[in-house]
Structures are given as structure tokens and as C-alpha cells.
Amino acid sequence: MGGQDKDGAIEATLIPGDGIGPEITRAVVAVLEALGSPFAWDTQQGGLAGIEAHGDPLPGVTLDSIRRTRLALKGPLTTPVGGGFRSVNVRLREEFGLYANVRPAKTMVPGGRYEDIDLVIVRENVEGLYVAFEHYIPIDGDPHAVAISSGVNTRAGSRRILEFAFDYAVRNGRKKVTVVHKANVLKALTGIFLETAKEVAPRYAGKVEWDDRIVDACAMQLVLDPWRFDVIVTTNLFGDILSDQAAGLIGGLGMAPGANIGANAAIFEAVHGSAPDIAGKGVANPLAMLLASALMLEHVGRGDLAARMRTAVAKTLNRDNIRTRDLGGAASTMEFAEAVIRRVRNEA
Ligand code: NAD
């Protein structure tokens, strides 16, 4: 994925985004350069920066760039309030068929509520209740007397995300996939997901174990005993909720990376937003976007560089004790990045 330019570099779209986006992007690009990153960036605008430059939070030139590179690293985008703009993230998912959302949750800083968390949530990203077939029925002058929403899960969409999760588990040496559903109540909408899992999972017998769990029980067990999980695969709404819950186990969204993957394109991002309260102060934590770029390196077959980055990050955090303010430290965004770069150079 991502074409190669004449020097063999992998062309990729870089969207710095809004708020803290440009600051953390600068830090991430500096670390990637120190690692000898394979990416040749085509920098484009999105979010408020896209509106300012081109009158659209997802400008045509940005879409054209991703159509060409099929690979992007995206900073957080501020969703304009009012003005009738549709969510940029939903537009990107639809435009590029990014059907898989992958959110690893791995402990980076010991001493939190839970130690040694290492699990991955694979969320179906384009079906389910997010297709937004919604409407109100007015009764007796109340325009919102009744609200109706229909979800859509297909056999093909379920098969595609389940195969993705099992393949991911095999490729990454994971031992178990847990299929999460609510087939006891939403018998059709999520029953089809479990039914399809029973068809897909046996094909991976001997390579990866599997079990299934009802979403409410899963949520409780994630709190009581998160170590029993390895890879969780689930439908759109449940995945949305469980992936934030899993991020909570490792200290919140500030350290959570995400990958949105389709058959022909992949977009990597930090899960947090544009943090307008601290934008421009140079204090934001670049870790989530840095870890997103590590997922991107793995995606293009440079797991070696991703591993070096993670080692350098872990040593910066836990041996050098250099952390940004949100993690109880005093380092600025660039001081943290420079400390990671020193570790990258020393380990080389
Ligand atoms: P937010 O994630 O931007 O901020 C929540 C809190 O976490 C704030 O106190 C912020 O300072 C802190 N925080 C977030 N990232 C941080 C970092 N890297 N380092 C240190 N502290 C960090 O959530 P919000 O305030 O609800 O949303 C702000 C804007 O971001 C909104 O316009 C929202 O729509 C948008 N948003 C975008 C994305 C995305 O593009 N993927 C995701 C979520 C929210």
C-alpha cells in the first residue's frame, strides 16, 4: 500500500490537523526521521485548517492525495460546530471503505490502576447502528415523540471483519480472539455476527483459539480481569464503547493510537481530539500519534522500525523519566520527542 517514489520511499499523506495537531505532528515527524523512516510526506490540510485553506474540512486535494498514496497519518481534527459539515472521520471511512478500526491498548507507564495490559480491539467500522437509518415520528404536536433507528450488519461485512481479526491475530502472534455480541437480545443484528464467527473461526483452528462473549459480560470482565483478553472483535457500536474502555485501562485516550484499515487504503491517527485548551502551548503529549505512526510502520512491513521506536519510547518514559505534563512530568512536546530521538540514536 502506498506507492513508492523514485528513491524507494513510500509516499504517504500527512494531515497535521487542528489544535495540538501541528505540534504533535512536528514531534512525530522528527522521531520518524531519526529512525530512518521510509515515508515521503505529502502534507495536506483537514478540519478547521481545511476550511480555512479550501472551504471544506475534507478538501478535494486532501482526498486526491489519499487516493494516490492510499496511506495517511492524521492529526486530530476539530469538528466545526454548526455549519452543516458532516464528520470528517465518517466521510473518510466511507470514501475509502475503512472497514476495520484497530485499537491496541498496551501499558506504557507502570504504576497505573492496571499493570501489563496488552490487548487489541478490532471494531467493525462501517456497518451496524452507525449506518444512521434514523428518524422521528411526530405525535400530537411533539416532533420527537418517537425515535427510530435501524442497524445493518451483513454476512459479507461480518465475514470481512472477522477474517481481518483472525488474520491479525495470526500475523501478530496473538493467542485468542474473543467475538463480542449481544445475540441473546439483538438476535438478528448481532446474531448474524456470531453465526458468521462460527463459520470463520474453525478455519483458524490450531493457529488461534477463540471464544465468544456477550458485550455486557465483556465490559465487566474487562474491569475485573482484563488479562484474560487478547484480541476482541466486535460490531461498530460495541467496538466504539469497548475501545474507549480499554484505553481507560492504560491511563486514558492520551496514549491510545488507532488504525482505520480498508482493502485499498489505511489511515492512522491518535484517538484523542485537538485539545483546544492546551493548543499552541507546546505541552501536548505526542505519544498517541507516535504510536499511531508505529502501527503505520508495521502496516508497510517495517515492524523493525516500529519495535525500535517502542523501545526508545519505553526507555524515555520509564528509565529517563522524561514525560509530558499529562503523565506527571515537565517535558514539553519537543523535549519529549528529543529525548526519544536520543534513545533512538543510542540504541542504533
Ligand atoms: P480532546 O481529546 O481534544 O481533549 C480532552 C482532554 O484531554 C483535554 O483536557 C485535553 O487537553 C486532553 N488531551 C487530549 N489530547 C492530549 C494530548 N495529546 N496531550 C495532553 N493532553 C491531551 O477532546 P475534546 O476536548 O472533547 O475535543 C476537542 C475537539 O477535538 C473537538 O472539536 C472534537 O470534535 C475533536 N475530536 C477529534 C478527534 C479526531 O480527529 N480523531 C477525536 C476526538 C475529538
How would you describe this protein?
With 348 residues, the protein is of the alpha/beta class. It has eleven helices and twelve strands. It has a ten-stranded mixed sheet, sandwiched between helices. The chain has a two-stranded antiparallel sheet with strand order 6-7. The longest helix has 17 residues, at 155-171. The two termini are 27 Å apart. The structure holds nicotinamide-adenine-dinucleotide. Residues 20, 76-79, 89, 253-254, 269, 272-278, 284-285, 288, 326 line the site of nicotinamide-adenine-dinucleotide.
Bound molecules: nicotinamide-adenine-dinucleotide
Compute the number of helices: 11
Distance between the termini: 27 Å
- What fraction of residues sit in β-strands? 15-25%
Strand order across the largest sheet = 2-1-3-12-11-4-5-10-8-9
Low-pLDDT runs of 5+ residues are none
Q: Which structural class fits the helix and strand makeup?
A: alpha/beta
Total count of strands:
12
H and E string: EHEHHEHEEEEHEHEHEHEEHHH
Radius of gyration: 21 Å
Mean pLDDT: 94
Helix content: 25-40%
The major β-sheet equals: 10 strands, mixed
